[in-house]
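Mods, move this if it's the wrong board.
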Amino acid sequence: MANGVERELAVLFSEEELREMSGVKRGEEYIEVTCGCTSHRYGDAVGRLRGFINGELEITCECTPGCDEDTMTPAAFEKHSGRETARKWKNNVWVIVNGEKVPLSKTVLLKYYNQASKNGNGSHRSNNGRVCHRDEFVRCSECNKERRFRLRTKEECQIHHDALADANWKCADMPFDKITCDDDEERASRRVYRGCTRSPTCKGCTSCVCFGCEICRFPDCSCQTCTDFTRNAKV
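Not the wrong board. Structure tokens:
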């Protein structure tokens, strides 16, 4: 499996594309490079940017030895750095190419992020042209069983979004499928089928994992995920 992933990464970003970037590291499911964001007041905040096969981007901050921030979205890293003109992370977060700071927007690193997040365009569509979101699971706070959520409509995405944000969510809160904590949890052999149009037992790809579109993000929601998407959609 690992060899297959490495071959896919080699296709996503060739050695030629990454050759002049600083700090390149290849993991089983990601590419990692040195990145940063510059504040005129505080200087450079440096971190490690990871780009995953499914288009997700995350940054581990290394701004100071005592920084206790966990992994962040690029937008959150931009804000954390103290950048004065925030909300334009694609231009403000940079990587080092040939010794020069180059905005992410001018590199190949956003190619698959854009495919996965551009309002369901590109590869993030099913065969009939509609946006595709795989089924997700939320764990009950009372019985500790995982329950399946279908994400085919905006209403279903809203229900899952709210459940995921509720630390006290329980089986009885499921609006459509009336289940209780006494009902059996899905068997592991069944949970691997999550509705990917590319492969029935897919573990996550750009065809079924969405990191933001008009169906699963909500402009009236104040959570970091929705806020980042709404801001970036305006960039």
